Amino acid sequence: MEQNALRNFKDFLQLYNYMSHTCFQNCVNNFYSRDLASDEENCVDLCAKKHIKVNHKVMGVFMELQPMIINKRMEEMNQAALQIEQAAAGALPQDQVVSA
Fold it and tell me: Where is the Tim10-like domain (predicted)?
């Protein structure tokens, strides 16, 4: 469980770093002051919102499709295991066995 939490945190940090880098490159125009100009601040806000919105959509699609992908892979593995068992029992010639 701790390994999953660590991986999730690492993924979050990578996404945050990418978003920060991209928005900084696209929005910050000058370095005359430590503060952002109002147009730069608006640009950063819109950029961050865009990245967050896209991330939410991608995660939603991933959560929707992941169970179907897992089920398909499990079926393929079960079929491959069945073919291997049949080949071992002599029911199929070795050249007809599909490798997993």
Answer: 4-63
